[in-house]
Amino acid sequence: MPVNSLPFWGVLYLVTTMNKQPVSRRKGPRSFDRDEAVKTAMHLFWRHGYEAVSINDLTRAIGIAPPSLYSAFGNKAGLFREALELYDGLPGALDGLTEAATLEDAISGLLHRAVEVITDPAREAGCMISTGMLEYGADHADIAASISMRRSQMQSRIAETLNRWLDKKTANAKAFYLATVMQGMSVQARDGVARSDLKQMINEVLAGLRL
What we know:
Elements: H1 8-19, H2 34-48, H3 55-62, H4 66-73, H5 76-88, H6 103-118, H7 128-131, H8 141-162, H9 168-190, H10 195-209
């Protein structure tokens, strides 16, 4: 039947049907680059600390919906653990202990390298392990314990290096002191203290150790 012979409502239905476009529907969770998601989360946790970063902060920065985050990482804590593993692989203060020929070289190299990484303009200020979770609720005690373990491991590695020149007890004591100094420098770097001022403090530390 010709269109011009159809009743008015028939013509209207025909035109509406012809102009109707198929609607595509997304199925399943939104896809995303997992490695980039962990990297983005690492920077957020590093910059603001674990407690200050919300699920909304993470999903907005990564560009996914909360269900996708929970599906991929379980929860915020799961994502934080992966971000912490990624951070562990970055160059850090302990690189300054490499190939130290003397005790003074080892301590000086450690502290100078620490200042360089915590004030690197290409990175976040401070150290994620030193300052990423200083305060926490009871339900996050396991995460805090994980970070505390990493700090202890770092201190042990320092002590192992110093043990080349010092007895074990003295090496452990100096490692504890140096780890405490480094954590303090991390807080100062987070507060915007200049690299030059932190390096000046290293001279005071070395003088105080009477190497």
